[in-house]
Amino acid sequence: xxPPAHVMAEVLFCQPDMPSLGLTLAFDNDQLFWFxxxxxxxxxxxxxxxxxxxxxxxxxxxxxxxxxxxxVRRSLTELATGKLPESKGIPVANVFLAQPLVLGEPNTLVCxxxxxxxxxxxxxxxxxxxxxxxxxxxxxxxPKDDLVFVRFSYxxxxxxxxxxYTCIVTHKRDNVTVITYWVPQSSVPSEVLETALCGAAMALxxxxxxxxxxxxxxxxxxxxxxxxxxxxx
Length: 233
Description:
By secondary structure, the protein is an alpha+beta fold. It folds into 2 domains: 73 residues, Class II Histocompatibility Antigen, M Beta Chain, Chain B, domain 1 (Roll), CATH 3.10.320; 91 residues, Sandwich (Immunoglobulin-like), CATH 2.60.40.10. It is built from 2 helices and 13 strands. Strands 5, 6, 9, 10 and 11 form a 5-stranded antiparallel beta sheet that branches. Strands 1-2-3-4 form a 4-stranded antiparallel beta sheet, with helices on one face. The longest helix is centred in the last third of the chain and has 37 residues.
């Protein structure tokens, strides 16, 4: 069998929304680097990645590509406005923990937002309907094979019973808001679960036995209650 093919993709986008420019280097849909246009430098997605060789594409070359992208976008916008429908995607958000849940122990809550197009959404957090901003980290946009983007937001948490966390995804220009909730739920120990199931099965068996006896008695009384005694009028 042939080894699976791998794809190295460099995706540049420009748009009227913020961020107006974006450039990402991805390997098999996993982001490796993104280009910081204000700082004119590549930024690794993970801190332990080696720096991207600047000689491959100099910052000046990338800025020229970005300028060309903006010029082409403006020209195409003038030609297509009112003639072609605008492509849009409704974001889809999923919230999960980075590590297994232990109530009262520090953890990280992850909000993964997919089906983003255009790549211009704001991600915010709430805890029990109160806005939370401390420690929040939002990643750059990562392109996917189907020409949409995904973005992650990380929130350090210490889950407690009764907490309600909310990930809010907003696209202001389209006035679209997607809200996803996460509530900590402790897993039931297997011994407790087995005991509960055994108890439920035993109670159901007793109930069925009582129901069977009741039906027999009702049937017996009905049969003997309607029978006539010999010599009766």
